[in-house]
Design brief:
single chain, six-stranded parallel sheet, 6 strands, 9% strand, globular
Amino acid sequence: MPNQHSHHPALSLQAVIFDWAGTLVDFGSLAPTQIFVDAFKSFDMPITLAQARGPMGLSKWQHIRTLLDHPEIARQWQQVHGRAPSDADVDALYARFMPMQIAKVGAYSQAIDGAAAMLVDLRQRGLKIGSCSGYPRQVLDVLLPLAAAAGIAPDHVVAGDELEAGGRPGPYMALANMLALKIGHVAACVKVDDTVPGIEEGINAGMWTVGVSLSGNEVGCTRAELAQLSAQEVIALKSLAEIRLRDAGAHYVIESVADLPAVLTLIEARLQAGERP
């Protein structure tokens, strides 16, 4: 990265903006993916967990549209329903998905190990804590009180269906956090996310970005599933996730948010030296 010290005054870190599933809660990002599989199955459309994970990070309506645009799934839909999938079909799937997601999100809402302690550390540094999600507001309304009881309570939350401008990979949810938290400079913000669209959101907003590999959608395993794998298999999955997140523009990649404080110290030093994302 070119050194830009001479161009910029020193700046201090002011805020960190987190994704939810796979980042702060729900190790392996299981809640959204499993429900997509279940919703599609109810339309006689068996899709795999891997297919369901593909567009993760997008708002849920957009996620369904992207899945239906997938050539294999579109062909399958044509065979089963006798026509190409339309936006009306996306609406119907979304309407089926929503109550299932609301009913199930609580079961997958456990805080990721070390997340609550990490947020305490950030607050002790005087940092504001924002968050945004591909989840619609109705789902977050169920998730937020459960997360708060486990010590996960950001200062601000933006839902995936709230902004007219749209969701990821656009910068809008990250910037909405910045406005709400009254942050003076985009470069004083760090976006933390486990998906490619979530990292792109941070980059497009002009922020530092930190990818989360092991706990997130890119590895896509629960703690129990990881425990069944060999050390080599875990390293391979983690490396692949890291490559994908770095290719999306992540400045740093960590295993889970428990590792974030050390990275924030590095970013703070770079800002003090006049660097920008």
